[in-house]
Design a protein that fits this description.
The protein is mostly beta strands. The protein contains two helices and eight strands. The strands form three sheets. It has a four-stranded mixed beta sheet with strand order 3-4-6-5, covered by helices on one side. Strands 1-2 form a two-stranded antiparallel sheet. Strands 7-8 form a two-stranded antiparallel ribbon. Strand 7 and strand 8 form a beta hairpin. The protein starts with a helix and ends with a strand.
Amino acid sequence: MNAVEDFFEDIYIVPLSEFDTVASIANYDDLNLPGIFKDQKSISFEKKKVSTVKIENRLNVPNDYTGPFGSYESRFFNCKNDLKVVVTGDSFSTALIQFIKESFGCSVLLEIGSSIKNCLKVNNRIWLLMR
């Protein structure tokens, strides 16, 4: 997140001290091998004082999306700045979104599931999202 702070002069990266660390055990698939699940330790972060709100999704779910229903898109808003970010989902972005949504004015997480590629049209430009 420090690299993001260096690139955007108007951004305030929320420090780790403003989050609680939560340890849990969950049953995850093992290296995306079908049918093989293991209990695994997981550490996540929860903001002590949340300043974002989840807002309505705006995108249509692509036909080739195979992820969990309703999790293709997550949008968050806060009043800290006018910066916007789109993050494509993977196992790391799930952890980072807690920091991202508290640092950008508008953040969108796209979980592209097992799709190899998707296109997103923003301001009349086509962006190819690769996983």
